[in-house]
């Protein structure tokens, strides 16, 4: 639900399961310019926003509040029987001209259990499945009504922050996904990436004496690699995969799609495919090109 964005305050209300990472994502939002408060009772939200508006003067602050649903007002408040009181507060904020957004942080049982055990809580990490079940039931209405649900079992705090900003600020802070394509050699270790492709199945130009000193940037080596049907099929499949992923990454506010292509030494096959991908995608998207082993060699 959204209010008058031209006058009111952007208010992100963050709720969710215990140990789902509300405080952590709040820290990242604070670094992005949001005024943040952790564990704020529902009853104090209106007063806090009034103080924030007075302090900001003519400015329009961006606020993120991790709302305490365990103390003070219960998730099922008395304002409207059978409906969480926080939703009534959200309606009131929208009616007052603010732009409220309800974000729910979830996580799997296994992730919550591990974080619980790793905490220094007074219960010494005792697993309490019954408490988790009760919490899921109590917060169910808030989850159903949320503008955005984030599963911290799989998303990093920075990914969560970017998706929250994309929700709350829309086109003003829309994240344009950069397709970063790099080659590497498996003999020097494989890097992390969103797509990591091993192209060692393609015949190696290293074993052709006249091609050995060349790289995948050189025409003779490129022609050799592209002459292999497996290389052509792999390139076409990789193009289709990136074309499917990039719009989804941009819609989710993810700033980077990392494509890693590796061969044995990072000189011939992987370099050729990276060059082809970047040539294909550059007219459409913002791309970054890196050749890990070649760049390292040139910097020495």
What would the keywords be for this entry?
Rossmann fold, 2 domains, five-stranded parallel sheet, single chain, elongated
Protein described:
The chain is of the alpha/beta class and 300 residues long. The protein folds into two domains: 10-173, Rossmann fold (3-Layer(aba) Sandwich), CATH 3.40.50.300; 178-299, no CATH class. The protein contains ten helices and nine strands. Strands 2-3-1-4-5 form a five-stranded parallel β-sheet, sandwiched between helices. The protein has a four-stranded parallel β-sheet with strand order 7-8-6-9. The longest helix has 23 residues, at 229-251. It starts with 9 loop residues before the first strand and ends with a helix. The relative contact order is 0.13. The model is unreliable at 1-6 and 71-84 (pLDDT under 50).
Secondary structure category: alpha/beta
Number of domains: 2
Question: Low-confidence runs (pLDDT<50, min 5 residues)?
Answer: 1-6, 71-84
Q: Tell me what portion of residues adopts beta-strand conformation.
A: 15-25%
Which CATH architecture of the largest domain?
3-Layer(aba) Sandwich
CATH class of the largest domain: Alpha Beta
Number of helices: 10
> What would you give as the CATH superfamily of the largest domain?
P-loop containing nucleotide triphosphate hydrolases
**Mean pLDDT score:** 84
Give, in order, the helices and strands.
EHEHEHEHHEHEEHHEHEH
Largest sheet: 5 strands, parallel
Percent range of helical residues: 40-55%
* Termini Cα gap: 56 Å
Strands, total number: 9
Output the radius of gyration: 25 Å
Question: Remind me, CATH topology of the largest domain?
Answer: Rossmann fold
Cross-sheet strand order for the largest sheet:
2-3-1-4-5
Which descriptor suits the 3D outline?
elongated
């Amino acid at each position: 639900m959204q209010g008058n964005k031209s006058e009111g305050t952007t208010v992100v209300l963050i709720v969710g399961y215990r140990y789902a990472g509300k405080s952590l994502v709040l820290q990242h939002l604070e670094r992005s310019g949001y005024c943040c408060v952790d564990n704020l009772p529902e009853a104090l939200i209106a007063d806090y926003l009034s103080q924030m508006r007075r302090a900001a003067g003519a400015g329009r602050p961006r606020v993120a509040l991790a709302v305490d649903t365990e103390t003070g007002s219960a998730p099922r408040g008395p304002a409207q029987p059978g409906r969480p009181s926080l939703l009534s507060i959200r309606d009131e904020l929208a009616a007052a001209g603010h732009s409220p957004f309800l974000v729910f942080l979830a996580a799997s049982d296994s992730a919550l259990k591990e974080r619980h055990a790793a905490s220094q809580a007074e219960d010494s990490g005792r697993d309490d499945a019954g408490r988790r079940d009760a919490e899921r039931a109590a917060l169910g209405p808030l989850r159903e009504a949320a503008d955005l649900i984030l599963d911290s079992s799989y998303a990093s705090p920075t990914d969560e922050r970017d998706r929250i900003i994309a929700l709350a600020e829309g086109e003003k802070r829309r994240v344009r996904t950069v397709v970063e394509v790099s080659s590497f050699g498996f003999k020097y270790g494989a890097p992390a990436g969103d797509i990591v492709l091993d192209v060692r199945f393609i015949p190696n130009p290293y074993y052709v004496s006249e091609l050995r000193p060349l790289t995948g940037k050189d025409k003779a080596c490129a022609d050799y690699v592209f002459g292999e049907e497996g290389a052509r099929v792999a390139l076409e499949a990789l193009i289709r995969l990136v074309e499917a992923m990039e719009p989804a990454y941009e819609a989710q506010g993810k700033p980077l799609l990392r494509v890693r292509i590796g061969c044995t030494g990072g000189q011939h096959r992987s370099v050729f495919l990276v060059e082809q991908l970047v040539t294909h995608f550059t007219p459409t998207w913002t791309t970054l090109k890196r050749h890990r082993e070649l760049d390292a060699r040139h910097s020495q």
